[in-house]
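Reposting from the mailing list since nobody answered there.

I have sequence plus structure tokens for a pair of proteins and want to know whether others read the tokens the same way I do. The first protein:
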Amino acid sequence: MSKPRRDKASFPVEDTLFAIKQRKAVPHEFVLDAIAPLSPQTRSMFGCLAVYVQDKIVLILRDKRDGTADNGVWLATTEEHHQSLRREFPNMRSIQVFGKKVTGWQVLPADTKDFEEAAMRACELVLAGDPRIGKVPGARRTSRSGAKAAGSPKRAKAPKAAGTRVRSRDKQRPDIEA
């Protein structure tokens, strides 16, 4: 006599062991659609979505519930291009989240009337390869601690010369001669 089979459909979906985590919705997805011919790649950054075209980061898409002042489309640019970009985007400003008055990151705020129009114009500039938008990551100067964290090679210690002074903590280690 065979054992009765369990009905697999009788287990509630919420009780599954391997629940699938829902991905966040892509903020301002129309921007990715507009630059799709460039085959952009995306990565999470600062809890937002960074958009890369070839070797350059060009945009960050942000739409958070908390701290909404910087929601919108961030443009990766430099301070030298702010004035000319501001002529095209009158509502553009530096992001506030880093606490600096002026930053390389400029935002087209999502809460302005012309947000979608401005974002589409920024996409046109990216598609045209405008040199004012986009930065190659790592092109900035790194600090000494940043260089260590980035995996810079450590110099090997030179062997101690005879007659050099031994530190007190070295006396406690059996592999160091006092």
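The second protein, same order (residues first, tokens after):
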Amino acid sequence: MFAQRHHWPSSRLTSGFLAVTAILAACTGCDRAAPAATQLPTPKVTVTPVVSQETVDADEYTGKTEASESVEVRSRVFGFLKTIEFQDGDQVKGPVLGPKGEVLEEGQTLFTIEPDEYQAIHNQSVSRIALNDASLTLAKAKHARNDVLLKSKSISTEEWEESLASVKSSEAAIESAKADAARTAVDLKYTVIRAPISGRIDRAMVSKGNLLTGGTAAGTLLTKIVNEQPMYVYFDVDERSLLKYMRMRAEAREKAPGSLKDANIACQVQLADENEFSHDGHLDFAEAEVKTSTGTARLRGVFANEKRELASGLFVRIRIPVSQPYAALLIPEQALATDQSIKFVYVVSADGTAERRTVELGTQKGEMRIILSGLKEGERVITKGLQRVKPNQKVEPVVAEASLPEANNMPTTGPQPATPKTTVRKPVTPRGTAPPAKNNSQER
């Protein structure tokens, strides 16, 4: 008999082979060590120490300069313009006044109008005085004779009364002639146009030879003079700020609530092309009423403008101190980060650990920011590389010195602002490390 052979399916042989191969591979892998985790490099960041600087808190507004005096020079009489006695843009001198307002010295001559016609009219008025004076002498002589004749009853009473009326008529004619002569003298005087105030003169609006129109309202505009010493700056403040400035008054309590002139509250002005508030002045006026439509009031600052650096019509920034000097902590603005409504910074400790600190912000000083609480002087805050830092992470700090803004040179004259509860604002030490920043935080 032949032996019977068993034929195993090929699929079962393949499955068995694969299982054995997998077991051998697993046993082989057991002898190998697991690969080590990749260690991230320590981030390199730039840090700046927290610095202290004496500063003064101040309010800032936008204002507009305006000359303290401004006069339009117009022609008072008709006539042809004869001469122009100034150069465009000159500084002209006005009249010198006495203690009672009397003119001690006339102002500088600016224009002359042909005076021939007005001189002739004035001469005619003066001669009319002499003519009436002669008539008065004759009338008095006749009346004197009539006095004698009336006593002898050689003339009637009516004739005597006529001679007396002739005397009084001649006297009135003389007074009328004198008044007319005074009027023509004024017209003659107006042919010479002088500077009514001292200041900077504009260009001549009319050239020589033109016919000028006279009159108090419709006279030809010849030029304009502005007095820039002192210079005014007008600006609007809200009612809360107005109340604050009113309470800063020291010795002017008897004045009206809107009066700031005697308080001598200091202020400074910065021009459009300047980086500092380099022009010193003081407040001297506030409107009597607050505008109900806007809730603001207009204030005025006065500036000596000795170097004539301020011109009328400029838009400027004006600053008013609202605190006494105190030691403020400053950090660069770029060190601040934001987590929703929370402002925080990263402080690098001595061992290189980055600690997140929540801070309270003050006003901005150039590229620096005042910190009211959360930091101490000398601590190092990260200014560059914030995106690569997490709380309690080791960092490699590179120190960069802060660029401090120039100290406030606010003048000290006048009443000082109300003293705060603490002259030096001390930072508050944080209670602990803040929680890690959320994924939706925005860092600056």
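Reply #1 (J.P.):
I read it the same way you do. The domain at 41-55+326-444 is CATH 2.40.420.20 (conserved putative lor/sdh protein from methanococcus maripaludis s2 fold).
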